[in-house]
Design brief:
Radius of gyration: 16 Å
Structural class: alpha+beta
Length: 101
């Protein structure tokens, strides 16, 4: 599944978070638009096989937040896993739901 193409088709085209000259030492990948927080994570150790899923332990390398967010009520209009579930883009377990063709 080409996640980038599917997101664009659903109206959530990935975008560059920061201009290259503002990235500093941390290079950010393209991200979903309209999120309140963006975390740059680094895997610590190996993935842990838990049978039906894997667990990744990560450390936060860097974080950027939307400067316009003043309190938690302002976050309600931002893209969230709650919204992605409502749009049937991800399941209750957070897995991508295949598009019907």
């Amino acid at each position: 599944v080409d996640k980038r193409a599917v997101c664009a088709e659903l109206g959530y085209a990935w975008e560059k978070l920061l201009p290259e000259e503002e990235e500093g030492e941390v290079e950010w990948p393209h991200v979903l638009p309209s999120c309140v927080y963006y975390l740059k994570l680094e895997l610590v150790g190996d993935l842990i096989d838990c049978g039906s899923h894997e667990v990744a332990l990560c450390k936060v390398v860097s974080m950027i937040s939307d400067g316009e967010i003043q309190n938690s009520a302002d976050e309600l209009g931002s893209l969230s896993t709650r919204k992605l579930r409502e749009l049937s883009i991800i399941s209750e377990l957070g897995r991508v739901i295949p598009l019907e063709t």
